[in-house]
Amino acid sequence: MLIVDDLIAAIASPPGPAPRGIIRVAGALVLELLTKLPCIGSKPAFDSKAARRYSVELSLRGVSLKVDLYLWPTNRSYAGQPMAEFHLIGSPPIIDLVLQLLISHGCRLARPGEFTLRSFLAGRIDLTQAEAVLGVIDAVDQSQLDLALSQLAGGLSGELMQIRERLLCDLADLEAGLDFVEEDIDFVSRESLRERLTEAEERVTSLLGQAEGRHRPAMRPVVVLAGLPNAGKSSLFNALIGGQAAIVSGVAGTTRDVVQRATRVGDLEIELIDTAGWEDLVDPVAVQAGDQRRDRIATSDLIVWCTASDLSVDIEEENRRRYAELPRVPDLDLMTKADLAMGGDVANRIRCSTRTGAGLDELRSVLAERLSQRHGGRDEILPSTAVRCRQDLEAARESLQRASSALGAGDGDEILSMELRSALDHLGEVTGAVSNEDVLDRLFSRFCIGK
Ligand SMILES: Nc1nc2c(ncn2[C@@H]2O[C@H](COP(=O)(O)OP(=O)(O)OP(=O)(O)O)[C@@H](O)[C@H]2O)c(=O)[nH]1
Ligand SMILES: [Mg+2]
């Protein structure tokens, strides 16, 4: 059983000496705690209604310590219950002394993530937002921070809430109908139910698509350059990253290992991958390179198949055959070495030359456009949330699909409402509206103490 309003305290500033240290306290009795703390001089009269800052002189073993005290006396705080923060000089031994003082006055040490857990339990944030708090703490670059902040602001929760609310209305209508089954009253027409189920399924599928694209730690879409040996892949790779990371030579089979670099196309940060030319694998090293290449191509977001514009007629067939051997159909057919263009069948193909620079800007914008379409323009789900909720989203989609089939087959409202309930439960698991303690334990144990 979770106790959610006893007094907890923790150091909320990073470990080690710093100009400022912060100790955070939460619990129903924060105000009483503050009035009991030993102070030098008169204690301020704490406002029990509005959040305020106070200057307090704590008495620490008879020595005076000036602290700034921020008090949120009501439930309108981060944790959804009375909270206070002591801002003081960031000396670790002094911070420890203040923490001990608080513990001797009835606080216990907070567990990892307990302030955020309380916020979740108080209904101030949902699970996806709790994960976003972690995402903000762990963000290593601006794009990860932007994503975490957007999820924290409720981007994902809002979408899930809308889908759930509509399904709840449908469920209520269906169940109302069940009570009047004798009278043959329909509270919701089958046609409008069908439309709403399709819409819900589409929205869940779109979330699932975002969640499935979010399993890589880098979170950048991966673009792979593939093609026959000597097609000009490494030259193009270097041109797109603006460097010389890949070796270029006129000898076919120059690239063996997969070479990968982050770069930018349009507004998007991508991971660009150069691969070994597609050919028959004879020696063991080539076989290994081929396996690596196959893996990277299969898990990429976008495959660019490079065909040299001066491709001789005798290897055109080879080009077609290798193209067909790819783990999936390439997303973009590109004619490289456009400066050597021989004409031929290049309709609808993008052409570029690393020698003259022609077509490279067009290629960048086409890549950015295709990736944006695929990713809905921007990331909306943190990888940690995606990993946790993918199964639930899939299960919700399956329930919605079964509900649609049941509707099409003219099955009774009981079956429909059972499937709707199941979809709602699975969506509820994502936000934490339906939650179990295991999930909470796992999630909040990943936090640091004090958050
Ligand atoms: N004329 C011309 N030559 C190019 C162009 N791009 C590459 N080349 C030449 O084509 C040859 C092969 O280029 P690479 O970039 O090494 O080709 P690759 O596809 O990486 O080859 P592998 O690594 O062997 O698969 C080199 O001699 C390049 O200088 C181009 O746009 N125009
Ligand atoms: Mg190469």
Task: Please summarize what this structure is.
This protein is of the alpha/beta class and 451 residues long.
What order do the strands of the largest sheet run in, or round the barrel if closed?
A: 3-4-5-2-1-6
How many beta-strand runs?
12
Low-confidence stretches: none
Query: How many strands, which pairing sense, and closed or not: the largest β-sheet?
Result: 6 strands, mixed
Name the structural class. Answer: alpha/beta
Overall shape: it is flat
Q: What fraction, in percent, of the residue positions are helical?
A: 40-55%
Radius of gyration: 30 Å
Termini distance?
Answer: 21 Å
The proportion of residues in beta strands is 15-25%
Order of helices and strands: EEHEEEHEHHHHHEHEEHEHEEHHHH
Residue-averaged pLDDT: 86
Number of helices: 14
Bound small-molecule species: guanosine-5'-triphosphate, magnesium ion
